[in-house]
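Supplementary Methods S3. Input chains for the assembly prediction are listed below.
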Amino acid sequence: MNVSVLAIEIPYWGQSLLRVLGGIVAVLLPAGTIVYVFLFKMMSFMQSRLGPMEAGPYGSLQLVAEVGKWMQKEDLVPEKADHVIFKMAPVIVLTSTFLLVAVVPFGPDAWFTNFQAGAFYAMAVGSVSVIGIIIAGYASANKYSYLGGLRAAGQLIAYELPMVLAIVGVVIQAGSMNLQEIVVVQNTGEIFGWNGVGFPFVITQFVGFGIFMISVQAELTQAPFDMPIAESELVAGYMTEYSGFRFLIFFIGEFATAGVFALIASVLFLGGWGVPFAWFDWTTIDSVDDWMNVAGPLIMFSKMMLLVFVIMWVRFSYPRFREDQLQRFAWKVLIPLSLANIAVTAILKVAV
Amino acid sequence: MVSKPKVPGLVKGLGVTFGTMMRTFKNGANTVQYPHEKESPPIRSRGVIALHEGNCTACMLCARSCPDWCIYIEGHKQLAPPRRAGGKPRQVNHLDRFDIDYALCMYCGICVEVCPFDALFWSPEYEYSEPRIADLLHDKAKLGEWMETVPEAPELEAGAEKKK
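Predicted structure tokens for the full assembly:
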């Protein structure tokens, strides 16, 4: 299976290498951009200050300075901690992010893996990070870490469900779990015969979209769902005992996962990498021009920035939920709502 | 009275942060980029304590009332020429040492309050950090230099009783 990109024949191993490199870029570049643009700058502006200004023009190299600082710090492990598991935990969290990005399609040929149960796989590996967080809290031999880990586990399991259920609506409507397929369906669709903007599922699945974004907020333990790392009660939750490079991995993991979840949300609800196929008289995925392999990632990136902007905006605006409110919101509001959404979608799909 | 349609609090909250962001974009931040531009502190802010040496009688009230014991005073008695011709020479306290250790000082201002002879003053100057902690011990000469930065006392309120 040789794919020609820009008229160059690339052998299979070359493609694989490109995809691995692309995966690393697709995780680390959004993470860095998100941290600088949103965490450093937007948050500062929302608090009427300028944020980092000294490192590089407008503080753009601040992240490099921070990474340099973290790399120099001592890699501390508490004496009574379970050393092997303690050291493994942040890597598991970051691995989950890399596994997650593997199914995101960035263009007609620019994908990492293209397999049928993509949506299902994304939800499955998205919860791998829970394991990393639980064992990070457990292996730290610290009661605050342990409480933080338990809270994270309870929260992530509670919000995993509405997230999966919110996706089911999209899957029913698209008739496929393959993310590439979902993108194609959205871009070939038409609204009452008008195909000017395709048919992004956010139009019909707005309830699902809302539930999905709320769940993503909770999955990322961003405020207002940051109970697991509530600094006023738990120091820093499961991250309390981590320092230096391992803390950095947690940190990258948090924002890279924000980016990747935003990518998945844009694939599922906002039409993914595609432009409406009718613009260029494309009909199927095979007739899409090659230049979409370059334009697609850019479109995905801008959609990701838009969604991450919303995630971060909510994060910087709202105070934290109480633990019981947080659980009640997931089990009593989001899950019934998403079940109703599935039922309505299924009925309309069959009826219309 | 027609009540305005209520915006849900959640949306309003998002509006506040977004509005602040746009305002910062347009009008700049409320903060000051400190080493590049400086803010002038309020005129009576507590920056550093200045010593007017001529007024000090080494009475030790400030040193004794200091909660941190950061004021060090040494003095000796000596004879000064008489005020009127034919009078006896007066005995005065001469100040040998007056140090304030700003590494200990907690800026409570009790020494300034308690001084019966108006020898201590607040100055709004705040840039006197030192690489070595020992250099934060300001001696008599340095405390005297701060006197130049002490602002004029504000006018008394109308009808206030003048001190004689």
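The first strand of chain A starts at residue 3 and ends at 5. The mean pLDDT of chain A is 83.
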